[in-house]
Amino acid sequence: MKPIRCPVVQARGLCAGVFSLWLEAPEIARRVSPGQFLNVRVSDGVDPLLRRPISVCDVERSRVRLLFRVVGRGTALLGRVRAGDELDVLGPLGRPAPEPHRKEILLCGGGIGTAPLLLLARRLKRNNRLRVLLGARAKDELLLAKEFRALGLPVSLATDDGSAGFHGMVTELAETQCKVQSGGRRSAASRQPSVVFACGPRPMLADLVKRLDPIPVWGFVEERMGCGTGICYCCALPKKGGGHIRFCEQGPVVRLNEVVF
Q1: Of the candidates 56, 69, 70, 72, which has an alpha carbon nearest to the alpha carbon of residue 6?
Q2: pLDDT tens for the 261 residues of the chain, in order
Q3: Is 224 annotated as a binding residue?
Q4: Under a CB-based contact definition with an 8 Å cutoff, are residues 158 and 170 in contact?
Q5: 54 alpha carbon, distance to own chain's centre
Q6: What gap in Å lies between CA 158 and CA 165, rounded to an integer?
Q7: Residue 55 annotated as part of some ligand binding site
């Protein structure tokens, strides 16, 4: 696979430190599946040396959308990109997320982790019944709620400070909506999903698995990648029963119930 130079056709900030880029990338748009990511070169020099893995948020005809949060020097450089610039990208990389059929599916996104769930929702809504839970620290940091609603999906919100939706963590909201209540009863809003797809900070994913056990939870894990090709083991986490999972090569979407956090 060779890197591709892709023109940036739109670049804008969504909230503090979070940016959206649309790339003209017809080859990638044709080949990419939900769950896959691009390795983006953020400098024309050797500093930073490593590319940055960024999941594909959405696809529209020949264009591909990326969302990212500035967390270090590399993403800070990427935040300076403007429409008309070109990016050197490698991909799509990683394995596509599984695509269940005729299932009750819950999508649970926390912060910037909401991004890859949009393309997944666009694909899964054809053959499944979906609900979406979006969480953030505050109202201004909630992402993509408008886009999920435009797909015709029910969206519930959770904020840590209570400024929008449920007051608390999105994992608490998920538990409230999914778990059978005491005495075998369920609240009016509760409906236990067959499978959950989640993306967000690693503590959030670990908490979600614990709260929803034994419901299968598939998670997008790409917050700590190095080479992005399975060589450096930077992204590996222990696996129950022994061994490790390299998320860049075996994921980034894996069944989290099998991971030792």
Answers
A1: 56
A2: 789 999 999 999 999 999 999 999 999 999 999 999 999 998 887 778 788 889 999 999 999 999 999 988 889 999 999 999 999 999 899 889 999 999 999 999 999 999 999 999 999 999 999 999 999 999 999 999 999 999 999 999 999 999 999 999 999 999 998 875 444 455 544 567 889 999 999 899 999 999 999 999 999 886 666 666 667 677 777 888 888 877 777 778 889 988 887
A3: no
A4: yes
A5: 9
A6: 5
A7: yes
CA atoms within 13 A on the CB side of 169: 12
Q: Is 68 annotated for ligand binding?
A: yes
108 is in an annotated binding site: no
Is 232 annotated to bind a ligand? Reply is yes
* Whole-structure pTM value: 0.90
Amino acid symbol at 178 = C
Query: Is 229 known to sit in a ligand binding site?
Result: no
- Distance between CA 102 and CA 127 in Å, rounded? 5
Q: Is 238 annotated as a binding residue?
A: no
Establish whether 54 is an annotated binding residue: yes
| Sheet strands side by side (includes 253-255) | 166-167, 155-159, 129-136, 104-110, 195-199, 217-220, 253-255
Q: Determine the Cα–Cα distance for residues 107 and 57; give it in Å rounded to an integer.
A: 14
Contact between 253 and 98 (Cβ < 8 Å): yes
Q: Is 248 annotated as a binding residue?
A: yes
What one-character DSSP code corresponds to residue 127? T
Give me the helix-helix angle, 170-178 and 202-212, nearest 10°.
20
